[in-house]
Specification:
2 copies of one chain form a homodimer. By secondary structure, chain A is mostly helical. The first copy, chain A, contains 4 helices and 2 strands. Chain A has a two-stranded antiparallel ribbon. In chain A, helix 1 crosses helix 2 and helix 2 packs across helix 3. The radius of gyration of chain A is 16 Å and the shape is globular. Chains A and B meet through helix 1 and helix 4 of A and helix 1 and helix 4 of B. Chain B binds a DNA duplex through helix 1 and helix 3.
Chain lengths: ~110, ~110
DNA sequence: AATATTTATTCTACAAAATAGAAAAAATAC
DNA sequence: GTATTTTTTCTATTTTGTAGAATAAATATT
């Protein structure tokens, strides 16, 4: 397969979109909103850890915020490898989808 | 997760692209070419079977051809559910990638 | 100051998907 | 009839994804 699994790609995209607000709970909320699918807690943290181990993401501990509650946030940012992986994913998508009309069902 | 796994999505796209030439070996060649990744034989046939079971694809046995060799080809075509799944996948991709510049690495 | 509530991550057993490639099948070529 | 080619089938193993309880750490409430 390609270098990124599906969940990994979604998470890298979310990290990129969320800039300096990219931590577990926010990433999960964002992806549930965009995909319309319920994603379990593990569905975020498990691949996040994997992405750090693979060095597509770098993690750093957040400072306490004025809001109530919670363990200290663990923020993530893309590494250069992470950026390259996303660029590659985009290239593949564009090739696959390019020039295709809305797919339609040809019965027969 | 979403309704399609990564490999399933790639295969549906390949089936759609290949029209009446969508059978295992061709699908594999096409996806290796587009993704630049080596995909094992199982990496095609295992998800193909799953897609038929899930009714995103319909399979039909091919007639013998003038070319030499091979078991009779098993061709695939999208069902209406398969088309819908692809349309949904496209919608999600467009939302995720829309308006994003080429991702770049912000060190810091 | 206890207790409740909220926000957040960690952990881990289980399920689903992907990988790898040998084996089998079926055809033509020599 | 033996070799070669093209194709699918099969299946054990590894990798990924899922589910959600447990834990942690902060503020709010009484």
């Amino acid at each position: 397969m390609s270098i990124l699994s599906k969940q990994e790609e979604l998470i890298l995209l979310a990290v990129w979109r969320l800039h300096d607000e990219a931590y577990g709970v926010k990433i999960r909320k964002y992806l549930i909103e965009v995909t319309g699918c319920d994603i379990s807690i593990g569905g975020i943290y498990v691949p996040l850890d994997r992405l750090v181990r693979k060095e597509f993401l770098q993690a750093y501990q957040g400072e306490p915020t004025p809001e109530r509650g919670g363990m200290s946030k663990r923020y993530y940012k893309l590494t250069s490898e992470g950026v390259e992986a996303l660029q590659e994913a985009r290239r593949v998508h564009e090739t696959l989808w390019e020039g295709l009309p809305q797919p339609s069902f040809s019965s027969g």
